[in-house]
Each structure stands twice: as structure tokens, then as C-alpha cells.
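> forwarded from #structure-qc
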């Protein structure tokens, strides 16, 4: 199966750029995510971390 894919991919001009683009997107996404985690306010993190356990949530759809 890999030979079949490799053979067809070699016929595409400029196909070597796609792995570089995907690596760049991957790196940028996680770098931005890491930056956001470091810069996020501790109060916000604590508030969001307690949301699943909050029984006083008024947005429930229980009838």
C-alpha cells in the first residue's frame, strides 16, 4: 500500500512542501497554546476548572 501512495506522490510537483507546512502549523498551534497557558489569569483557570463540579449551574436543561 505504501508503494502505491509513494509512487503517486512522487509525480506531484512540489509535494515536499506539504510535510514542512504541516510541521509549521503543528508547531505554531502548540506554541500559541503554551503561550496562552502561561499568560492566562489564575482566577480564570480556577473558575473554569470548577465548572464541571458546580451544582449551582443555572444553564442545565433538567426539567
Amino acid at each position: 500500500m505504501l508503494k502505491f501512495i509513494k509512487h503517486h506522490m512522487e509525480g506531484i510537483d512540489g509535494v515536499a512542501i506539504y510535510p514542512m507546512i504541516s510541521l509549521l502549523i503543528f508547531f505554531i498551534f502548540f506554541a500559541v497554546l503554551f503561550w496562552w497557558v502561561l499568560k492566562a489569569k489564575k482566577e480564570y483557570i480556577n473558575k473554569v476548572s470548577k465548572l464541571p463540579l458546580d451544582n449551582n449551574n443555572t444553564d442545565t436543561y433538567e426539567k
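QC bot note: The mean pLDDT is 82. The two ends are 54 Å apart (CA to CA).
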